[in-house]
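Regression report. Comparing outputs from two consecutive submissions.

Submission 1:
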Amino acid sequence: MTGRELSIFACLTDVVVAPAAPLPPVCHTDAAPAFARSLESAPALNRAGLRAALLFVEVAPLALGFGARLRRLEPEARERAIARLDGGPLAPLLKALRSVAHLHYYGDLAVMRLLGYDPEAVVARAADVRGR
């Protein structure tokens, strides 16, 4: 995955998740690197499809008349562009990307802990139960 694709994913994640305090901004999580790791282990066709979808979302605002690619827009314009895509014929594609963005953002260990979930404690409890 290229740096540009990671940047597009982080930008899209920032728009669709819209984290607010006390949740960390996307750039302070491992959402984009985790997405890259997920792509590395995905079948080639899925990997190609997701990468193409990211590039589509990046350039779609140009076609919609926003005057710039997604990453170059101001945050409010990004939200409007994504909302326009949500109402169009490719909404299912955006829905899939939105799901992937949420999965990788909320899968960050620090984010999970802020939300009250400690996966290491769950594993420890399960090991304790198995040990009995």
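Submission 2:
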Amino acid sequence: MKPRCVAFASFITLSSFIHAPSLQALPPADDVPEEILRAEVILDGRSPLDGEPLTAEEYAELQALLAESEFAPTVSSDIRYIIFVLQVRRMLRTLVPPIRLLID
């Protein structure tokens, strides 16, 4: 081996030993494990209307109120027909690949 390669290899090995104690394999002791955070029940929420913090009871009441609202989304019959035709077209394109030549 050339002297430069040996010196470089020894430098890399020495530097890895110097920095090894600073590396940690485990998270800090005060860190909450992700499994516990995933299982945690969230008792507060935010309003979908204005982002205001709400308790669980207020959030449930707001969701019920929004579900009962009188404002149902309406779409014109022309647009509903176009959406239906596009969905049928997409279904046909996935079920029958050679028909793509006829549709496009």
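Expected: both submissions complete independently.
Actual: both completed, but the second showed a warning that disappeared on reload.
Relevant detail on submission 2: The first helix runs from residue 3 to 19.
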